[in-house]
Amino acid sequence: MRELTFLEAIREAQEQEMARDERVFILGEDVSFNVYGSTGGLAERFGLDRVRDTPISESGFTGVAIGAALVGMRPIVDFTIASFMYLAMDQLVSIAAKTAYMYGGQAHVPAVFRAALFYNGGLAAQHSDRNYAMFMQVPGLKIAVPSTPHDAKGLLKSAIRDDDPVLMFEDGALWGSRGEVPEDDYLIPFGQAAVRREGSDLTIVAIGSRVREALAAADTLAKQGISVEVIDPRTLVPLGRATILASVAKTGRALVVDVGHRSCGVAGEILATIAEDGFWSLRAPLKRLTAPDMQIPFSPALEKGFYPDTAQIVDAALALVQD
Amino acid sequence: MSTPDPATQLEMYRRMLRIRRFDETVKTLFDRGRIPGSVHLSIGQEAEVVGACMALAGDDYMVGNHRSHGHPIGKGAAMGPLLAEILGKATGVNGGKGGSMHLADFSVGSLGESSIVGSGLPVAVGAALGARMQGNGRVCLCFFGDGASNEGYFHEALNMASAWQVPVVFLCENNSYGVTTAFSRVSRVPDVATRAVAYGIPGEIVDGQDARVVYAAVQNAAQRARDGAGPTLIEAKTYRYPHHSEGPLYNNITYRDPAELAAWQARDPLPLFAGHLAEAGIADAALLADIEQAISAEVASALEFAEQSPWPDPAEAHRGLYRTPIAGFDHA
Ligand SMILES: Cc1ncc(C[n+]2csc(CCOP(=O)(O)OP(=O)(O)O)c2C)c(N)n1
After folding, report:
1. Contact call for A90 and B119, based on CB within 8 A
2. Burial class (CB in 10 A: 0-12, 13-18, 19+), A309
3. Is A261 an active-site residue?
4. pTM of the predicted model, to two decimals?
5. Over 80: is that where the pLDDT of B330 sits?
6. Which of B11, B17, B154, B176 is 20 to 30 A from B163 via CA?
7. Which residues are within 8 A (CB) of B258 and not within 5 positions of it... i.e. 6 or more apart?
8. Across residues A99-122, what is the average pLDDT?
9. What is the per-residue pLDDT for A2?
10. How many CB pairs lie under 8 A apart between chains A and B?
11. Chain-centre distance for alpha carbon A189
12. Neighbours of A66 (CB within 10 A)
């Protein structure tokens, strides 16, 4: 089958959805010139009305997307970098997330908010946020974090057709990665975790780009006779808890790997779920590998080691299995 | 644009009176401890509310804020479900999930009322943009206060609306105060309307106590918007007689000169408009009395509807978070 990069898959999802439904349009800074690589050719095909360059007004254009969604449009907002979502926090939290509920079902906000995660690139503290866990605290938002080009396309298409506000976080570490992506139309439902590799000794739940590291670690561990199951939740809200719990019921051990911060993070949430509902199948303590609760430093010499890598995953897995 | 015809003017008077009696009823209920949370009344501001709303077509959009009991009424909403919402009843416009600060009646084009000051401004721009992309000719009227004009939202919204020539009418309800802080203490320009210059759009100051003046200005602005000429900023000078919100918080605070309040009350929009109707031969004393009686009856029956309505089922609190339910998840 044909292969696409992660960004090409996102571009294709947008192009197909814009062609399918004329209510779909893109809103963001510098989108018509395709500076960030996910809108190539879209302005030429659909015009500047539907591939709309905004002023540098994150809270403003987020509100604009919500208002347009309220009257029947289906906007895709491109924040370009997830760190800029803080400017739009109020619109995302107070309006997008609360509208359907607060107005008693009279309205809903079918908008997609795309955010790229650019950590590990020497971009320092203000451009390196991996902030999806913050938004998991906000009822009313749905959150996707794809790990493959295939899923990026299918999840984005689902997000665009969803009647609720969806945040899609695109892990920059995956942008150049290639994978098989069918050209035709397919949807990946929210709330269904993927079992990326089956195993019996240990469950590793990995988020975004860490799925790749976890699979590499599983290869290494297999050579040492350790059988690892790798789970990719794909969507954090809703979280495919059943798949995770079923895996832990089988393996008795769990490790969560995430490039987000440790405190109140995705890893903590997943481990709490396992502790609450899967405790009696556990044969070893629960373990999480995350970024530390530190700001992100600039120098590559300093940022190195901030995000759990294959070697760390192997070490943690060995410690759990040999316990 | 033209003076509204007599029938329209009578309807303007009715809607102003509805808002006045509605808010008076809300105050009574609040004082009796019947209303959860807080309420923000717009008594004194009825003329700008109704003048602006009635200048729109029925299916035009409108965005409100925390002081928005009157906005849906001005746009033609039924009062029963609005009052039921304020009491937290199942029959409320939002089923009891929004309350006083989030009264929204989408059936009359009211797209909601956000109590985060200023946050409705970009939403209104988006609604207007959506309307234009759909080519349905609708405009969006955006109500906000003088206080909101100091939020960043104001700047971003006016700039985007202007850059894109979006069909939106920004209506600043300048009642001189944000809670207790006079606009003059937090801004070096005396008028919000002058800020329009910065965005290359018309800015106009109108007498917010005269419904006909506001009507004419908004009708012009709406026509401009429909013609593709973009947004307008209208500043209606008005005044709220009550404090920012009801409750004991303001009991011992003096931030307004009583003479200032009296001066505004001397130009109360209701007698002002009634006087005009009489002078123009549109309504004599008997007709005005009939209207008064009819509106009192309407409000009384809205109150009865609200009071007789059941409380929402507690299970309802856990429903409606998402519009697209997700198989296997119970929170949708
Ligand atoms: C972002 C935000 N800051 C502060 C408040 C508290 N607050 C509620 S209403 C209000 C005053 C708003 O003044 P204005 O916009 O002039 O409207 P008015 O109440 O005079 O109608 C304030 C400060 C809030 N709700 N939201």
Report:
1. yes
2. middle
3. no
4. 0.97
5. no
6. B176
7. none
8. 97
9. 96
10. 165
11. 14
12. 29
